[in-house]
Amino acid sequence: MTVSRNLSARKRIALVAHDNKKGDLLEWAEFNKSVLARHELIATGTTGKLLEEKLDRPVKKLLSGPLGGDQQIGAMIATGEIDVLIFFWDPMEAQPHDPDVKALLRLAVVWNIPAASNRTSSDFLMTSPLMHQVYEAIVPDYSSYVKRKL
Questions:
Q1: Over the stretch 68-113, which tens digit does the pLDDT of each residue have?
Q2: CATH fold of 3-149, please?
Q3: What is the DSSP string of 81-93?
Q4: What pTM value is reported for the model?
């Protein structure tokens, strides 16, 4: 059985950046300011505060990533409250919360949401015509997996 959910034309976009990538994300967000204005923005703590200042618009701020913000976004992905993940992560430096980071990226794949991890992939994602219209996303059916685990 195929299950789907409609992503509205106004997407709920989660924005996350490691410390060494916050500047890159802020530059990218400013470059895409008019496109981002059409969508709802959600971010981890410090990133959200910086984005609000840079974009002069409200951003729903969660906890800082290492304090649980990554997990909050993961939970929102799992419950269908996030449509897109933009995560500028730092591949050159280990993070104290690396397991949370891996879990967040894994959940984006598990729940089949668009995810971008750098400026180029984020630009491609934001300029897709699908980003600005209703889109029917296929939700993977994990019922057989759940039954095996019970």
A1: 898 999 999 999 999 999 999 877 676 665 777 788 899 999 999 9
A2: Rossmann fold (3.40.50)
A3: --SEEEEE--TTS
A4: 0.91
